[in-house]
């Protein structure tokens, strides 16, 4: 019996290592495609990606994997597993069930559909023609409903989708936290819009030399404790972070000549994701647990570093000189406080990815409510433009002039990623809750930021969040880090404190 | 019967596509490791490479592949195959047999040995201590002899090794061409050394700005017809070229601040390899025939572009102004002919990779003769330093001061790559023979070079060499391109004509 268990565990871990190797190889292939792979090789490359993805899927869903999981879940075997191995078995079981429950033929159809759909979406967005995209969206909703049926409905149908990106998250929980947020942020945004004390941002729009921007981005990453022996910074049209393994975490940014903050905050944001991936515990390396535990927790780290730290007054009191000295004569007449306020402008806008730290959450709540309507109330693709526009009017006081700036703006739905959007606001809420704990547990927190001593903060986050990787669930992480479950009041308090000061409310 | 054949062909081609996909993925992983992958991720990356390599090996040597090959080699089936498919079957059979003839256990031992041996070689070379490396080399020779036994001895034992890198090449043939070369080049090198007309090279050693060097390298690549939509130029410590697929061919170079020609000729050399890979016929894409037909033919293209074109007087008459204008004030006083002569200095030297176009061949002949002694005459690792030094004295008139600059200088033997060295000189001979044909078939050949009109030359090479990929054997290529088999007299004539002029002999 013992031998069988040990053999099963050994074989299981070999399989996991293989899966992880495919995952790493695919990660490099995608990174390469997005950072400068020659255009003419893309088709052949896509085929290679297809071959490797298929093989990885086969490894994850093989009959042998199913049998190994059953053996290791057997109560006698399970008792002998280490905590990490038990968690690895549980996570693998979850992926396994999710995959094998979908008939291969159905999944194949869906893959083809989403690939066509993403092209259709791109074209429709360019023309602002929702009707061109609508049939695809209807089909994707239809397939997703079939998947929910196969996977099984949790408390509500939409709960089944949420669980993909934020394990354990529910509609009941999100309704609670988002309603708390919405009720506070809508009036706060209105008060800000009405304030006579609007920051001056004119000086942000100058020609800023790319080399100097890059040098400052690299400097800030280094200050955050980004390990350049275990990662690199490149350029891409859409910035992203990818953790191939904790020793190789890559981020990208995009330099805009006429905007000094875009690449910088993009770098800090991706740098936050990178710190998480670089500091995952050594005991998890080579396993599928060596990654972030959820999209929401991952996003909490990018947003903590970008917004809580990077858009704070102490941060700029420390680093403004390092910025201005790189652009001689360009910012000399701008006091640090003006600069700080300019990086924190709040204004209702139509486009999510350009939104400020406050109204961003309203963009997310709108998408969350629409996704709930689709999967829990049967809303159809044809209904969405109207619903979209109504909600923008209600929450942000503005209405898109075109569907391109409205319901067509995001790529997510065209790829079937329903349930993903809430992660972004969960990230903001987790980040504020973590910052609240940090303020209490590291009494010198803001002094550390103000003196550029960021490594103790990174160290604290490593102990509470990073090192656990996927070996703890999102709720275990947030309780472990802050002592209590998700509480949206911290984000409200943080935003109120910050913006009442900036806008003199 | 027909159905079976068609099914077999379809399945076979699917397998080939899979193998090629793994090959491309591994190519990207290696390229990435050599162009800036973070140091701390290397171990995990190596494991991923191991997993993918193993899978690729399994695909190539599976029982199913053996059966498919037998089915397609059946005379009735074989007749129905297109020329390309028949060639694909033959090439796959060759790899298959070569692989399955070695027992997995033996191969596994050999892989471990060569990996240890490469480390041992590196250390031994650093210390100049041959004795540290000798036991490894003995073992590698021993394993290689076992492989020869398993693969079967061709005309001589060493023939079996040559065939790996230059299919169809024999000891008889190499003895013939190398003796012709050696007998002419040894006295020519002596005459050059004795000439009072040594080129002045002092101006090459200045500080040359890297950006300007890079700009010139990119400009020359563009002039050669390198397609930047199907390739890229990066930097690495050891320059290399890798053809992932004809739409994605990557080369690297290395910029030395104090040498304006090193990166340039490195770029042109790798650019020659790249032109080959970029212009392989579309009918071969996605198959394992979409690569160069042999190391020798590949090397002929890098050396044709680097030496025949890049180190020619017409080339510099056309491009010298483009070079000097990038380094204002640094070369203004140097006449183009002085520059041309400085890039063509001939001098006996100890290190192969630093050798000039002429004496390089003597370095290769020495290695060829030693490898023959090992495998056909039973020479042992212990004998090699003495043999090495004796041959350097005889052919180049100099003797290494240390084994580090002698028998330990090359990595090849530590990795078991016996039979590879001749490819380099084969490349020189093929290149000169092709140049001879070009001079006759494109009467304006040197005018084209002199006017910077290089694309007709690239086009000619595409038709005669590049587009065939591995669908023709090396001898088919050279006969197809020049109308006759390999003839070393062209290299002799080319070198004599060039150096008698430069050294006024």
UniProtKB/TrEMBL annotation, chains A, B:
Enzyme class, broadest EC rank:
hydrolase
Q: How is the cofactor bound?
A: Binds 1 zinc ion per subunit.
Q: Which InterPro entries match?
A: Peptidase_M32_Taq (IPR001333)
Q: Which domain of life is it from?
A: Bacteria
Binding residue positions for Zn(2+): 269, 273, 299
Query: Which residues are the active-site ones?
Result: 270 (proton donor/acceptor)
What is a single Pfam family found in this protein's UniProt entry? Answer: Peptidase_M32
What EC identifiers does the entry list? 3.4.17.19
| Zinc found in the keyword field | yes
- Reaction catalysed? Release of a C-terminal amino acid with broad specificity, except for -Pro
Tell me the GO molecular function terms: metallocarboxypeptidase activity; zinc ion binding
Q: Which family does it belong to?
A: Belongs to the peptidase M32 family.
Biological role stated in the UniProt entry: Broad specificity carboxypetidase that releases amino acids sequentially from the C-terminus, including neutral, aromatic, polar and basic residues.
Designated name of the protein: Metal-dependent carboxypeptidase
Q: Which organism is it from?
A: Paenibacillus curdlanolyticus YK9
């Amino acid at each position: 019996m013992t031998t069988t268990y040990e053999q099963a565990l050994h074989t299981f871990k070999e399989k996991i290592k293989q899966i992880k190797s495919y995952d790493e190889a695919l990660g490099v292939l995608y990174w390469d495609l997005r950072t400068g792979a020659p255009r003419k090789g893309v088709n052949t490359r896509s085929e290679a990606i297809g071959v490797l993805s298929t093989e990885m899927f086969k490894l994850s869903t093989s009959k042998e994997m199913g049998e190994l999981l059953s053996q290791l879940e057997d109560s006698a075997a399970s008792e002998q597993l280490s905590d990490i191995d038990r968690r690895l078995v549980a996570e693998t079981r979850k992926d396994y069930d999710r995959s094998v429950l979908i008939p291969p033929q159905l999944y194949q159809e869906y893959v083809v559909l989403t690939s066509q759909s993403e092209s259709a979406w791109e074209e429709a967005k360019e023309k602002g023609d929702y009707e061109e995209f609508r049939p695809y969206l209807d089909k994707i909703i239809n397939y997703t409903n079939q998947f929910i049926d196969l996977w099984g409905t949790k408390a509500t149908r939409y709960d089944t989708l949420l669980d993909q990106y934020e394990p354990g998250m529910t509609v009941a929980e999100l309704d609670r936290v988002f309603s708390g947020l919405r009720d506070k942020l809508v009036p706060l945004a209105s008060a800000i819009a009405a304030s006579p004390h609007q920051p001056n941002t004119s000086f942000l729009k100058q020609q800023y030399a790319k080399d100097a921007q890059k040098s400052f981005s690299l400097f800030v990453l280094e200050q955050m404790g980004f390990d350049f022996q275990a990662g690199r910074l490149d350029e891409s049209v859409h910035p992203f972070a990818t953790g191939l393994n904790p020793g190789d975490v890559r981020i990208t940014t995009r330099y805009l000549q006429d905007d000094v903050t875009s690449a910088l905050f993009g770098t800090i944001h991706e740098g936050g994701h990178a710190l998480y991936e670089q500091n995952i515990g050594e005991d998890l390396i080579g396993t599928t647990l060596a990654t972030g535990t959820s999209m929401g927790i991952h996003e909490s780290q990018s947003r903590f570093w970008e917004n809580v730290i990077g858009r704070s007054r102490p941060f700029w009191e420390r680093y403004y000189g390092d910025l201005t000295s790189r652009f001689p004569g360009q910012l000399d007449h701008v006091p640090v406080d003006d600069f700080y306020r300019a990086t924190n402008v709040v204004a209702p806008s139509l486009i999510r990815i350009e939104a400020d730290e406050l109204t961003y959450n309203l963009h997310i709540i709108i998408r969350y409510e629409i996704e709930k309507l689709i999967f829990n109330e049967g809303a159809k693709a044809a209904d969405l433009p109207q619903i979209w526009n109504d909600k923008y009017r209600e929450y942000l006081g503005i209405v898109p002039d075109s569907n391109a700036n409205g319901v067509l703006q995001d790529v997510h739905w065209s790829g079937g990623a329903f349930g993903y959007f809430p992660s972004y606001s969960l990230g903001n809420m987790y980040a504020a809750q973590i910052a609240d704990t940090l303020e209490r547990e590291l009494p010198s927190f803001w002094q550390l930021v103000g003196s550029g001593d960021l490594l103790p903060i990174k160290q604290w986050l490593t102990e509470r969040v990073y090192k656990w990787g996927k070996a703890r669930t999102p709720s275990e992480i947030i309780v472990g880090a802050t002592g209590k479950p998700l509480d949206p009041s911290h984000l409200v308090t943080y935003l109120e404190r910050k913006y009442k000061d900036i806008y003199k409310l």
